[in-house]
Design a protein that fits this description.
Number of strands: 5
Number of helices: 8
Radius of gyration: 14 Å
Order of helices and strands: HEEHHHEHEHEHH
Strand order of the largest sheet: 2-1-3-4-5
Structural class: alpha/beta
Amino acid sequence: MDPFMQAAIDEAQKGLDEGGIPIGSVIVHDGKIIGRGHNRRVQQGSAIKHGEMDAFENAGRQPARVYREATLYTTLSPCAMCSGAILLYGIGKVIVGENETFMGEEQLLRSRGVQVDVLHNATCAGLMKQFIAAKPELWNEDIGE
């Protein structure tokens, strides 16, 4: 397994262990993780702390060049908000763990020149399927249904 996707999965597991939604993300530049995060909406009562947004927050201020050269790994297909941040900061490549339980804005990202690779990772899908089955109301709140 790719160590960066494993780091994103580890973040997703942290979120689940904290009572939150199991979605994790890492931002990698020059072979190093510069930001990592997981969905903290439940833990922090936040409207915006998705896994990718938390990773951006933890990466902090970076020169534009760093974000343009970075790859973002996420366990779940990025939603419209997270895809907007990916476009805003010029991330050129996104590695998605799975898009079976939720299909985000992959088409938008691709249309704007972002390389999107979907791994169809069974661990990522399993975490989400178990969570959605156990807490459908929380999942529906997170994705706005």
